[in-house]
Each structure stands twice: as structure tokens, then as C-alpha cells.
Amino acid sequence: GHPQSVPDFQPSANATGLDLQQSNNIEKKIVPLEDMDLYNQQQQQRQQAPKVEQFVPLDDSASDASFSLCGVTLSPLSASSYSPMPSQNYGGPSSSMMPQQPMHQQHPVAQDQSSGASFALPTSDVEAFQAMSFGNQPPLYMPVDLPGQPMPHQAASSCYSPPPPSVASAVSSDATGGGAGASASASSAASVSGGARRAKQREDKFCGVCGDKALGFNFDAVSCESCKAFFRRNAAKGVEALKCPYEGNCRIDISNRRFCKRCRLRKCFDVGMKKEYILTEEEKTEKRKKIDQNKLLRTLETLGLLPKELTPSELADREIMSESDVQELTQLAEYYRQSAEVRVAERHGQRAANVDDLINFAELSVMRVIDLSKKLDEFRQLSQPDKVCLLKGGALELILLRGVISFDPDHARFLDETDTASAESDSMQGQDFLRAAGPNAGHAFFQLARTLRSNLQCDHHTLVLLLACCLFSPDRAGLSPEGRDLVEESQVKYCMLLERLLRTRFTVSHARKVYPQLLTQLAELRGLEKDFSDLATMSNPRFVPPLMSEFLDLQDGGSGSAKHPQHRSSPL
Amino acid sequence: GHPQSVPDFQPSANATGLDLQQSNNIEKKIVPLEDMDLYNQQQQQRQQAPKVEQFVPLDDSASDASFSLCGVTLSPLSASSYSPMPSQNYGGPSSSMMPQQPMHQQHPVAQDQSSGASFALPTSDVEAFQAMSFGNQPPLYMPVDLPGQPMPHQAASSCYSPPPPSVASAVSSDATGGGAGASASASSAASVSGGARRAKQREDKFCGVCGDKALGFNFDAVSCESCKAFFRRNAAKGVEALKCPYEGNCRIDISNRRFCKRCRLRKCFDVGMKKEYILTEEEKTEKRKKIDQNKLLRTLETLGLLPKELTPSELADREIMSESDVQELTQLAEYYRQSAEVRVAERHGQRAANVDDLINFAELSVMRVIDLSKKLDEFRQLSQPDKVCLLKGGALELILLRGVISFDPDHARFLDETDTASAESDSMQGQDFLRAAGPNAGHAFFQLARTLRSNLQCDHHTLVLLLACCLFSPDRAGLSPEGRDLVEESQVKYCMLLERLLRTRFTVSHARKVYPQLLTQLAELRGLEKDFSDLATMSNPRFVPPLMSEFLDLQDGGSGSAKHPQHRSSPL
DNA sequence: AAGCGTTCAGACTGTTCA
DNA sequence: TGAACAGTCTGAACGCTT
Ligand SMILES: [Zn+2]
Ligand SMILES: [Zn+2]
Ligand SMILES: [Zn+2]
Ligand SMILES: [Zn+2]
């Protein structure tokens, strides 16, 4: 959906100025009759368009001239703003409603006319433009087609005086090999095509409208940035809708271009700007959509959720998650990151050798899970008892999942993302934890970590999502019925997010395999309790709830609630 | 110092459009030779200017024509932007550096010329302007004086084509009695003066520059608002500094006026706009000063500190306080107002019959004085002991002054400004207070109130200032030396503010009398202690300081300081 | 690199208010 | 009269896709 996209009918004339650098390209522009017919047929077939008007006569000698002229400079029709509908033959924008692009390969005639004047070899750039546009002291606006003009392209819609007649002589010096011979039968056409080349080089530098410095083609004509913007803003209105504050024959230059819209716009059209090159509203939204999509992809790549430089076909096999999904995911990951910074105040700085490492690690993990949980809206909406149920019932699983997330297999120790400098405080605890948790604890944990990390290729975000899914387990003992519904709803939400993440990270077909496996892992996590028998006390109601309740209260910011325990549900 | 102010030489022609309604005013415009000479002489005498060039010939018949032209429409010189220095004869801005005003009474010629065309009685306003300015299809700019032109005013500086020749016939109908005879010898001048009148009425409506609707004169020419603004913004640059993006002969109209600065500005000058009418930077600051002054006066009137509608001479006898003074004063009054809202929490709502009313009233007053004091920067900078000294030492005086402020003589009771609905709570306390304070207490208080309120005409603000002066008494016992200096400094500040307030409320001479009397009252206040013997306990160190200290601490917002009495100075 | 759209600061204008 | 304001337009700079 973009004018710049390569059109389907490449073989037709392309003269974007660049191609002019390669002299043999000119040959390409001269399309033999048969090819042209073929091309027209293709067009008709492809677009199911009504029969296209043919303007290539079959065997008239004059037809050769007019046709080869078309091949090089196309027809006056395509450049004239007064021609209501450019023919499809010339690759103009299709008249169907499909967002087919205007093409670059056909070329304005108007440029060639005015460019003919530039051969006077002016001394300065400004003079060059002036000569090019007006001659020296041009008469005022004369919208005339002088019949019998010797130069055929003069019949086009230029509103200003014809260039001085020094064209032909100046051309010869620059008319190098390739194009000249091929440029067909009409003798005048030869000089035109050579002139077109020369003019291109000149016009590469100056705006055909106002004479300001130009960077290249805009809307199919060489123009400066300001005229480009002007044309985009005003072309839709049309010349007739604007009115000239003067006499309607303003000569536009760099100093007065701002003043008369009408004459400026008219000149824009005159030098070959085409409003069809301006993106329509639909094309713009489409393009914007594409840009957003790309931005999203780049974000995902940055987050490591998408391999870099995927081919479009590889991309097509995936279902990229939405921007709001990414938003939510990164938010969750940020909460996790913050939770990893939680320290238990009393222990901070003093290596607690006398306290059981088992308790140390577990407590810290639980604290961090609590910290994370309390930032989730879904968790906040639960009643205090239901919160405790989730945390209590899921304590071991959550600790283990957190362990997998923070476990560094390379160094075989736990690392929380922050505080890596003094990492031993946590990492060593983890080792002790595994040793103390039970005889088979280490094996079970490593098995879990390997399955998730290696077999199922879980990355950080995936694991954090899994953690959320685990937290919101609706089948925890003791949940209130209403709480159960809320929890299930939340779990569904995070599970679906997880699934969409998988369909982003992997192909859809692969995600379809991995997703149930992850849920299976979540289920198997429950069976691990036997391996962590010594840790079972963590889920012992006599131990956990007071700790949790207090911590839940303490972090609410309400200094009163800790002192005055209230049994209202949801103090948050 | 303003162009709009009425000039000194009123008798000369004044034709601001309004005067044109009165037909006999035309006589005034025709100034006989002798008057003109006299006028010139006056001008020379007044301004001590070098001899002014005379351009009124003495006894040429042609001179009559040109002179009467001057009388009515002035000379081309005054309208032409090319005349480097307008003659003082015509009331133009003086060439001296004194800020003498440009005058309104002389009139542009350019308008009169173009206005001659308006007699074609166009159907629409726009047509009227177009006819007026250009005729139908005028040739381009021709800065010519055609010699021998039949219409003398045609020789002026209009750059556009002459109006259609239907002038003379249309004029006769409007040439009413008064002016015609007086308008002197040249027959053509008569029609011109009639034309001028007619033109004025037309020109009152249309901008001489662009033809847009005009509201009146701007910079001495009839123009629309936009051309006014344009002229103000660009006149200083001068025509030469601007360049025309076209050929330098733009015909300005409402649709293209914004495009060519140069030609628009040139036309502004052509129609008689004068850059001397634009306020200089100094004039602008002066004007702004005046506006600020007026704003200040209005503020003071609103605050009741200045009688409304003072004559300038009455105003001259006063010294209006500065805006920052007003700011400070209103701030102080606001603090007082807030302090009057202070309630003693424990007593709020329960009528304390068992507690001595004496204590009730006194305590409440002191509390409010403390509340006020603590909002004053100067007070805050004092050390805690010094604060206590001021409050303790001035307690009785401050209570009494507050009493005067809040005393309502009409109902003979105390009213604090807020809580007037349930006013009894305070007002009755006051009565009891006076009864309980001592045998002579009532008399002494009423005496004080009468002196301040009636004799010395103290208003609310004055009394509040007096309260501040009383608070910052540097001779209170127990003040530290540093504190004493600070307090004195503060008292001086408030006393000076008081003095300036008096010089605003009264004439300077009256203020000079009142001010020392107020200070005397402040001194006499000290002698009143004997009349309030029973209240003397208030200044008893055993009673007051603990109360005050606590209250001072309590209102600091520092919850700790009340519980942990700290003897650092200035916890604020 | 070419050629689209987008964004934004700045210039000016002309209206309105005081 | 000036001040202030809102609104328009411009054009340079930038980002993005092909
Ligand atoms: Zn341009
Ligand atoms: Zn124009
Ligand atoms: Zn105007
Ligand atoms: Zn101009």
C-alpha cells in the first residue's frame, strides 16, 4: 500500500532520474509494440478493468513517433492536471478501489518542457532556475496551445513562455551513445530525450515550482521540501478552490511562493506533481498500522521475545501479541524485578548463621512473591483470607518457580537480578536451601529447571507469566467461592497471555505443543511436595499465616492496620 | 504623554470624524492667514524651535487655492511619506525631544484624494472601496504628479489611478451653507472641501490601506484593525528595509494585504499613517506604569483604603503605597482573618461555665495572636525564648488591640469576623472579660477603642498593622540582644508600612499628624495594665509560658516536639 | 538513497480585551 | 492606543519503508 513499492509491471518505462545515469536504460523505455500490447492485456486480465482505451495505432508511421514519445516522456495527458483521468496504460494509479499504488516509472512531460530552457548554460544556479522557468523577461501568464508549434511537447500545459531556442545545439554535447539511437523515429523527439537527460541532472537540484534547492522527486516531480509539503497540504483542494489574491498570473519564486496558493498549486501541477501520489486516508492508516506493527516487533526483539531479523514468511507463522499484551507483560516483569529487591530488614547486613537457611531462603522468596502479588490488580481485589490462601497454598510451588527464574545454571546458583555484586547472600542461601529441603530436593529442582528452561525454552518473561498462573490457582484450599471465581478469571487471563506470548516467541504450531506442556509442568509442580518434605512446614498453617498476614499488612502503608488487626476483607 | 490626550492648541482644526457631524465646523478648518501666522508664532515661541519653513505664499491667487486646500485637507506634504520632516505648522509631532504629543487635529490628504472617487455611489461597500482606491481597472503604480491636472488634489501622492470624473456633480448636493462661503477663493477648493466632508463619512468606515472595514483613526489615518496592528509592528523598520516579493507595485486589498509587507507599509504611509504616533518604548513603560497605578488605586478602593472617585488634585496630596506594600498588608490581614478562626479544641461546642470567663477570653485571644504571629516570617526567625518574651510581655496589649479590632461598637460586643452566626460564644465572653478584668477595665477599653476608631479614624488594616507594631516591641523584658535587634528591625518595618498606609488613606499632612498619635497610643497602651489588674496574672510567668510554649509547639506540625520538649532555640 | 508522512517551532496575522 | 491571544501557515528536521 505504498507508492514506493515496486509495481507489478516493471518492464514499462522507468525514468526516476536514477535510471538515467545508466545510459542503456533508455533502451528499456522504448517498448516494442508487441510488448505493449501484451502489457495492456495483462493489465486487463489482472484488474478485470473495462476495456482500456488504446492509443497506440497499429501501423501509422506517425503513430511510431507518438508512441516512442510515450516511451520516453509519456504522454502530455499524464502530466496535465487538466486531464481528468490518466489512462491505466501508463501505470497511473488504478481506478479500482483497491489500494494499488501510483507508479514511479512513468514520467512527467512538464519537466521536459521547462527543462529545455536550461541549456542556456547559466552562470549561477539562480539564473539557471530563472532561465529555466521564465526565460528572461517573460510575458505574463498565457494559457495557450499555439497550433503548429515546432516543438511537440510545447503543447503541454506550461503556463509560461517557451524557452529560448538555443536548445538543440547545446544538447549534442551531452547526447552520448546509448539512448540516442534508440530514441526513435521523430527527429524532434531525439533532442527531447537528450534534453530530458540533461534536464534531469539540472532538475535534480532545483525545485521546478519555486527554484529553491531540491533534494529529489516529490510526488513525481523535482521539488523543494517546502513545495512538497505545500502540495501535500493543498493538492486535494484543487486549484479552482483556491483564489489568487493578485491577478491570477503570479510568477512563483522562492520569496513569494508562500503568498499565492492558487498559482503555486497550479505550478505544482504544471511541473508534473500528481495528487495521486499523495497517500489517501486509508493508505495512511494502513501505513501507520504497519509502522506500529514494526515498532512492536522491534520492541519484542529488544525484549528478547522475538528473534531478530525474521523473514516475513517466518513471521507469518506466528501470531504476534498485541501492544497492550506487551505492556502488561513488561509491567508484570517490572513488578517481578522490583520484588527481587525486597530484603528482610532485620537480616540485612548481618549474615544470619544461627537462623536456619531453609527458613531464610523460603521466607525471602515468599516475601518477594508477596511483594509481587500485591502489585497485581487481580490480587488486590481479593479478600485478605483469600490472599492468604493463595500464598499459603502455593508457597512451595511459587518458591520453586521463583527459584527456576532466578537460577543461574552456568554457575549453579541462585541469582536475583539486583544486588549481583553481593550476590552470595542470596545465592549461597539457595544452595543451602536445596540441601536442607529434602533428600531429593536438588534433583527435583534441577529436573524442573531443565525441563522449563531447556526443553520448553522458557525465557524470563514466560517463567514470570507461569509464576502468575501458578499464583492464581483457583483450586487452593480454603478459597471463598467468590474468591475462587475471581482467581480463576485471573488465571485464565494470565494463561491466555502466556499462550499469546508463546505464539509470539514460537510459531503457532510449536506454541500449540509447548503451551499444554507448560500447563502440565504447572500441574506436576504440585507433586513435588513430597521431595520437599522438610519444607512442608512452610505450608503449615501454624507457621505461615501469621508471617504472611503481618507482611501483607505491613506493606500496605497503613501503619494502623498492623497494630489494629482488622478482619474486614480487603484492606487494600 | 499620549497621542490620545487632548492637545494644547485646541482651536485649530479638529476633524476626528465626530466633529464632522456639525456642519459649521468647516469654518474652523479654514484658517485665515493672520490666524495661521499667529498660530505659527505661538508654536515657535512655545517650543523655541528654529524658524519654521513657511509654505504659505503671501499674495498669489494660486496661493489661496493651495492654502485653503491646506486648511481643509492640509498639504500633500503631510500625507506623503516621502517628505522627510512634516512641518510643525500642521501640528505634527514636535521635533524636540520632549515627549510632546502628535496631534489629531490635522488631517491626511491622501484620504481626501482617493475619497473623491467615492461619489460614484457604489452599491456595495466593497465596490465603494475599490472605486475609491483604484477606479475600475487601474494602471500600475505611477508615482507621478501630472502637471496641469484639472483637479488640484490629484497632485498629491496617490500612486493609483485618478477617480472617475463624476465628483463635482455629486458634491453639490452635500455642500450645505456654513462652510462653503468661508472656504475661500478658489472655486475648486469649495468642491474639495465638500468632498472632504463627504469622504470623511465614507472613510470612517473603510480602511484606506486595504479597504477592510475601519472603526476609526489609527495612527492618524482611517484604517482597519489589522492594518493598525501591521503598522505598529512594521513602521519602525521602514519601507526601505522591506522588500517586495513581486514587482514593487502591489495593489493592496483585503485579500492580499498580508503578503507584501513593503507595499502595504508604503500604502500605510501614503494614506497618512505616522510612525510618530506609535508609542516609544519609554512611552509604553510610562503608560504601563499608569495602568498599574490605576489598578493599584482600584485595589485600594476595593480594600476601603482609599475613598472612591478622588479627584487628581486630592490624589496628589497623598503618597500612594506601593503594590508590594498592598501585597504585604493584605497578606497580614489574611493571616489575621485566619487567626480569628482559631478555636480552642477542648472548649469547642461546650460552653465552659465552670472555667473563668476571664481566662476563656484571654486565652483565646492569646491563642489567636500566637497563630497570627507564627505566620510572620519575622517572628519565625526569632528564637523560641524570644518569641515567648514578645507574647508574654505584650499579652495584655495584644489582647486589648485585638479587642479593639474585633469590637463592634454598634452592638457593644466583640465579634470575630468568622463564625458570626454563633457569635455569642465570643461576644459574650468579651463582656464578661471586661467585667472581670478590673473595675476600670471597661472604661479604659472603650476609651481606647474610641480614640483609635473615631478620633484617629483607624480602619481594620490600620489596626492590624498596629497590632504587628505592638507585637514586635523591642523593649520587652527578657529579649536576647540578637532578638532585640531583629524585633526592632521588624517593628521599624511595620511602622513604616503603617506610615505609608496612613499617607495613602489620608493626605500626607494629615498622616503626619496621625502617625505619631498612633505611636503614642501604642505607648499609652502599656499604662493600661493598672486598669486590668486582675488580668495581670496573664503576664505572670507561672501561668503564661507553659501554655504558650505548648501552643507554639503544637502548631508547628512537629508531633514530636510537644512530647519531647527541646530547648533548642527556634524549632520552626 | 529516495521519497513518503509527521512533527514542531516559529512567524505572522488579525481579533479581542483593557 | 497596546497587550494578549488564538489561529494559520510554513518549512525544516526527522522517522519510516522500500
Ligand atoms: Zn519549491
Ligand atoms: Zn496568484
Ligand atoms: Zn486595512
Ligand atoms: Zn509589493
Can you walk me through this structure?
The structure is a homodimer of 572-residue chains. Chain A has 572 residues and is an all-alpha fold. Among the domains of chain A are: 216-271, Erythroid Transcription Factor GATA-1, subunit A (Erythroid Transcription Factor GATA-1, Chain A), CATH 3.30.50; 283-317; 323-552, Retinoid X Receptor. Helix content of chain A is 51%, strand content 2%. Chain A contains 24 helices and 4 strands. Chain A has helices spanning 25-29, 33-47, 61-73, 76-79, 110-115, 125-134, 167-172, 177-182, 187-203, 225-234, 261-270, 281-302, 312-316, 323-339, 357-373, 377-380, 384-406, 424-437, 441-455, 460-471, 481-505, 508-526, 544-554, 559-563; strands spanning 216-218, 221-223, 407-408, 413-414. The first copy, chain A, has a two-stranded antiparallel sheet. A two-stranded antiparallel ribbon of chain A has the order 3-4. The first copy, chain A, is elongated, with a radius of gyration of 37 Å. The model of chain A is unreliable at 1-203, 347-355, 417-423 and 554-572 (pLDDT under 50). Chains A and B meet through loops of A and loops of B. Bound molecules: zinc ion (4 copies). One zinc ion is lined by residues 244, 246, 248, 250, 260, 262-263 of chain B. Chain A binds a DNA duplex (18 and 18 nucleotides) through strand 1, helix 10 and helix 12. Chains A, B: Its main location: nucleus. Chains A, B: Residues 311-558 form the NR LBD domain.
TL;DR of this structure?
Two copies of one chain form a homodimer. Chain A has 572 residues and is mostly helical.
